[in-house]
């Protein structure tokens, strides 16, 4: 009798589970008709939630790559269960195919994990457009680079590129970046224990705020940096606009940031009218004064969304990369010695009458550039970017249906042992003879939407490491601190450490 009851309960449980697992198929796959049989291998997970629980579970564990591995490696027992419970026998095609279907961030999606598939998605602007989650678009801005059309993106990029990455602009930024790095390192060395990442974020935020707004107010910057922290946590959160959720807090933070930036833009426009022209002392003046071939400028919403985007990306990625590069060099004395020797040579060869770094010296930092590239590869600050199929797209024999999202999974490429030997080993020297094949190194994306601030970011990172290597060392309080992977890879203690000076403090030239 009990066996019958247990069998009935088990049967009911399996039936309910089977029905629930079919909901997303009914909603998104069945209506594709015969095209459903050409979808990439994978599954759309549970109703509405999709694969997000397994994604979050993996990235909150010690093995974030288990999420993708769950698509690549399916056990024979799992495959047999699929064969019994599903008429979709094409689901048995799991393996290292580099393209998988899933349900991510509220949308039916395809994840691509190999250079060839990523190249197609990132470079084919006729077939794919930006497809960022609703939460990211609402928070960063509908007129920022992440959601505008290809033509509009080209226009805005052309208008703003010189202010961000131009040779003249980079040369102008060096003294200010260097001044703040030298001052911050000296201050930290006298403070004792600090959260190294937190202080780096404040430093990089100060720099990007000055570059954009000429602002050096500690009170204003501290308040805005806190708002950006809340904003950043909400960008990759589920779009639940309810008190207590990250997305709700992030929306409030965006509202505060927009209000601040709007008041600054209003004041600048007012000053421009009063003086007859803009001073063009910072990037905001440049954005206000820029004109296209038709004589048209940017409206306030475009300017604010561009600023909000750059200020977020321009301090978060740089701070995290600086922290990890510093940690990795301290953990590997042989690489630290080589990087330091290069910086000592650059200073030694400098003219006695010359003070401070130059753009030419930055471009001589060949080994330090490899350290930075290896850090960017190893950490992969942005693990994915989002696109959306504009038409039905055929890739490697599979169909990506029109309207489905596509997630270009950078992390899988950067940690692929077929591309990088011992990929989970930090080794800047791997770049000595490495000839990078197309779309195997994507820290700033690729194609027409390559991150426009990549040169500025690498300049900022290099200037910090230059002064750190010459004069300081890092002593972590908890070197075995657990690593967290969301929203970005970092130690759980934000790298609690002491910054120790190696030599007596020289007079501050700045």
Automatic annotation (TrEMBL):
Compartments where located: Membrane
| Keywords linked to the UniProt accession | Heme, Iron, Membrane, Metal-binding, Monooxygenase, Oxidoreductase, Transmembrane, Transmembrane helix
Task: Give the principal location in a single coarse category.
Answer: membrane
Q: How does it sit in the membrane?
A: Single-pass membrane protein
Cite the InterPro entries for this sequence. Cyt_P450, Cyt_P450_CS, Cyt_P450_E_grp-I, Cyt_P450_sf
CDD domains (alphabetical)? CYP90-like
- Matching Pfam families, A to Z? p450
User: What's the family?
Assistant: Belongs to the cytochrome P450 family.
From the Swiss-Prot or TrEMBL record, give the protein name: Ent-kaurenoic acid oxidase
């Amino acid at each position: 009798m009990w066996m019958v009851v247990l069998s009935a309960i088990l049967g009911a449980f399996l039936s309910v589970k089977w029905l629930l697992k079919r909901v997303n198929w009914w909603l998104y796959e069945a209506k594709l008709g015969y095209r459903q049989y050409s979808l990439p291998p994978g599954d759309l997970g549970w109703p509405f939630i999709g694969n997000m629980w397994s994604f979050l579970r993996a990235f909150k564990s010690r093995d974030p790559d288990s999420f993708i591995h769950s698509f690549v490696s399916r056990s024979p027992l799992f495959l047999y269960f699929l064969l019994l419970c599903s008429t979709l026998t094409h689901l048995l095609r799991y393996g290292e195919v580099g393209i998988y279907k899933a349900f991510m961030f509220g949308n039916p999606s395809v994840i691509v994990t190999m250079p060839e598939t990523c190249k197609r998605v990132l470079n084919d602007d006729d077939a794919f457009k930006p497809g960022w989650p609703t939460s990211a678009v609402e928070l960063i801005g509908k007129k920022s680079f992440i959601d505008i059309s290809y033509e509009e993106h080209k226009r805005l990029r052309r208008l703003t590129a010189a202010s961000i990455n131009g040779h003249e602009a980079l040369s102008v930024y060096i003294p200010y970046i260097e001044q703040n790095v030298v001052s911050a390192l000296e201050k930290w060395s006298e403070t004792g224990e600090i959260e190294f990442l937190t202080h780096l974020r404040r430093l990089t935020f100060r720099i990007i705020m000055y570059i954009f707004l000429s602002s050096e107010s500690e009170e204003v910057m501290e308040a805005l940096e806190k708002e950006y922290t809340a904003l950043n946590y909400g960008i990759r959160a589920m779009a639940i606009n309810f008190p207590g959720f990250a997305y709700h807090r992030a929306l409030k933070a965006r509202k505060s940031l927009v209000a601040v930036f709007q008041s600054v833009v209003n004041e600048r426009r007012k000053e421009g009218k009063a003086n007859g022209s803009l001073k063009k002392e910072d990037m905001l003046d440049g954005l206000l004064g820029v004109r296209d071939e038709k004589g048209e400028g940017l409206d306030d919403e475009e300017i604010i969304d561009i600023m909000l985007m750059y200020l977020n990306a321009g301090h978060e990625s740089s701070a995290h990369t600086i922290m990890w590069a510093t940690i990795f060099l301290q953990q590997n004395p042989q690489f630290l010695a080589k990087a330091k020797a290069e910086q000592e040579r650059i200073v030694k060869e400098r003219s006695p009458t010359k003070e401070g770094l130059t753009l030419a010296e930055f471009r001589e930092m060949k080994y330090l550039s490899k350290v930075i590239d290896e850090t960017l590869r190893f950490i992969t600050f942005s693990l994915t970017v989002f696109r959306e199929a504009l038409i039905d797209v055929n890739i490697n024999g599979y169909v990506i249906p029109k309207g489905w999202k596509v997630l270009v999974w950078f992390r899988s490429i950067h940690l692929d042992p077929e591309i990088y030997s011992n990929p989970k080993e930090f080794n800047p020297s791997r770049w000595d003879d490495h000839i990078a094949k197309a779309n195997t190194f994507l820290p700033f994306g690729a194609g027409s939407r390559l991150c426009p601030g990549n040169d500025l970011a690498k300049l900022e990172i290099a200037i910090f490491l230059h002064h750190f290597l010459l004069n300081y060392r890092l002593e972590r309080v908890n070197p075995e601190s657990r690593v967290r992977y969301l929203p970005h890879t970092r130690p759980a203690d934000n790298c609690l450490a002491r910054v120790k000076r190696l030599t007596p403090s020289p007079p501050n030239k700045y």
